[in-house]
Amino acid sequence: MKNLTTYLFVIFMIMFWIFRIIVAFCYNLGIDFITQPTDFNFEIVLLFLTFVAIILVIKRSTLGGLIYLVSYGLYFGTSIFNIVANMGQGININIYMDLVFDFIGIALPLAVLFDLLLDKNRKAHPVDKKTDWFYKNKDFDRKLDERADKNQYRL
């Protein structure tokens, strides 16, 4: 992990994961919280899959981004679909809060996957400004060789 965007996405993944742990814990104890899980059993499985995906994203594996996107897409995508389908029946603040968290649950994995895919190109063709000016500059090597041949030192 060399990029600031990767660090930020991993931090956001961990924060959202901790938030989902709190949501599941409050739902299990019967405490009213901002949002509630749509399927508690799938939420527990999702928490474990998210932990694996976070580790794989830290290791820069595209598989981690795909696992993260597919699992969150299945969970939050169906939730968004159900909310939008039942929007005409009754609208309250809980529905909007669920919709906001579901949107975050879809947008974050998409951003992580795009970051991983864009970073694969940078990983295949790395650019290091500290050394490329010397190693990739043939004119500098030629000028250095010519100058070195013309040096005449007096003793």
Q: Your description of this structure?
A:
By secondary structure, the protein is mainly α. It has one domain. Helices cover 78% and strands 0% of the residues. The chain has helices at 4-29, 40-58, 62-85, 93-124, 129-135, 138-150. Helix 1 runs antiparallel to helix 2 (40-58), helix 1 (4-29) runs antiparallel to helix 4 (93-124) and helix 2 runs antiparallel to helix 3 (62-85). The longest helix is centred in the C-terminal third of the chain and has 32 residues, at 93-124. It is elongated and about 90 Å long.
Give the % helix.
over 70%
Number of strands: 0
Can you write the helix and strand succession as a string?
HHHHHH
Helix/sheet category: mainly alpha
C-alpha-based Rg, rounded: 25 Å
Straight-line distance between termini? 54 Å
Overall form = elongated
Beta-strand portion reads under 5%
Please, how many helices?
6
Oligomeric nature of the chains:
single chain
Brief descriptors of the model:
mainly alpha, 155 residues
Nutshell version of this structure?
The protein has 155 residues and is an all-alpha fold. The protein has helices at residues 4-29, 40-58, 62-85, 93-124, 129-135, 138-150. α1 runs antiparallel to α4 (93-124) and α3 (62-85) packs antiparallel against α4 (93-124).
Helix-strand layout with pairing:
Blueprint: H1 4-29, H2 40-58, H3 62-85, H4 93-124, H5 129-135, H6 138-150
Helix pairs in contact: 1-2, 1-4, 2-3, 3-4
